[in-house]
Fold this protein.
Amino acid sequence: MTAALLDIERLQVRFGQTVAVADASLRVAKGEAVGIVGESGSGKSATVLAAMRLHPPGASVTASRLSLDGHDVRTLPDRRMASLRGGFAAMIFQDPLTALNPLMAVGRQIAEVVAAHRGLRGGQARAAAILLMERVGIGDAAVRAHHFPHQFSGGMRQRVMIAAALAGDPALLIADEPTTALDVTVQADIVRLIRRLRAERDMGLVWVTHDLALMAGIVDRVVVMYAGRVMETAPVDALYAAPRHPYTVALLASLRRDGVQAEASGAPVPPGGCAFAPRCPARMARCDTAPPMLRAGGTEAACWTLAA
Amino acid sequence: MNELAALSGVSVRYASGGRVHVGLDRVDYAVAAHETAAVIGESGCGKTTLGRTLLLLQTPSEGRVHFAGEDLTALSGAALRRRRRLMQMMFQDPYASLNPRMTIGETLAEPLVVHGMETWRSAQARVAEALAMVGLAAAMQARLPHEFSGGQRQRIAIARAVIGRPRLVVADEPLSALDITLQGQILGLFRRLQESLGLTYVFISHDLPVVGRIASRVAVMLGGCIVEEGPTQEVFSRPAHPYTQALLDAVPIADPAAERLRQAREPSSPAGRPAREARAQGCPFVQRCPHAMAMCADIRPERAEVAPGRTAACWLHRADA
């Protein structure tokens, strides 16, 4: 069996007293697309940042497993990690303006990644960068390569970042809310581009998002996070057809209907209880103890209702 | 139609860097009393400028702005200020629009004091009442903005908009900063307040599903123009303008099989920046339109009735074309 592209088990990320990720496990197989969905503060970004060792200094990261391509992210020397990052696994972000260098022409930025990961130099790296820009649908790439990030529209800037991410020919692309800041018509173009690139390269994908509808068409499997924990993980069709965790049910309901929300007690839960219990309409006495991941068919959910 | 607020022939032009930027281009728009209207379109289409101009927070370069039968552009000074209490604006980011050093009680009382309706002391009861209306405890008025969650701050922004008993509220992307499970609650709150206070809403939004849930009428903007307007359900189920169709085609569907199919389809019109170059004389959609004809680049179609209560600015719907 080949190593998973990404393998995370019992991840915890803390900033001092604040727990960003309390308990997250997820695995991405070769060529697989996994969605991580959750609301703000659910720990979805902190999870993927820790996996890339891009968490802020001062954060404490513990896990029983944290590996990229079979390499332990926690113990890998910085140089090896740097070559894995951008080479084996690349990341794109919501805001390309903060991810790109505003003082460097975009062609040079992409060429730098090409040089670092493919060993090409000078004119060869520049030519490869222009090819990449064409591949992601930037017209007139040879001219546009000399332009600076602020001279591109939001959608085109996102394409520049994707071109830079592809420069190292990654086996895994991690996309953190890559279309959230874009207009819907531009979003549709970027999604189409990422689907095409995945098909061409058999590239694995982690799609971090709060948009359940858009994600439905992109990923094979979904991981639902809430308050730093994985609440449910299931194949995408099963998740939408038969969500098992009451939180997933609530998320899908707020997407499909008009704010009809089942009544929840709102009562606080003791430490160590299920984080969703105060908002949960299906709360029971046992919810004062956090449930483990329980299995039902292809779905796993951290909810006592599956134990019944 | 019992018209509450209207723009007639309104243009907004800004001069910047020696060039003239057109924010609104000869726009006619009206909203009826007690209705919920929405204005949709991509970034830069002019929807926020339309909302601001409706409240005369933006002065039009030409055209008239009417509110409750009066021409606001003919008023000034104290007369205009008196009308302002009746027209309120809500912004996307409540945190940025709340003064971080003022307690919520002070923030809510301020408009009442400014408009001479209450003194700081006498405003207390009204503040407590406004907080109750949005589902917050009166005791919270002593707190500062940072002590509230995102959903609570949005409730405070709503309380501030309605505390002076306005007739019209223009809300610019009021839900887009909120988590999806909170959006339903805030939508419900907007509805309840509309009923109890007799409010008229104009929602400015890029989120078509949300607009479909709340607005009875919708205007679609592109390049500073309204290109289609009508009852939301009709416009969304049978769009008349190719641009409206393109926007609807781009909306994701919360169903894996249907959404995979949608994403695999080629778009009817490629995305891109609004065609500003063509705006001067032709249709603002001409460069992206799958139905573009020779005349579309040269002559801008005026908005005309395509069905009872529905208008569109497209040559496809003009018998005289």
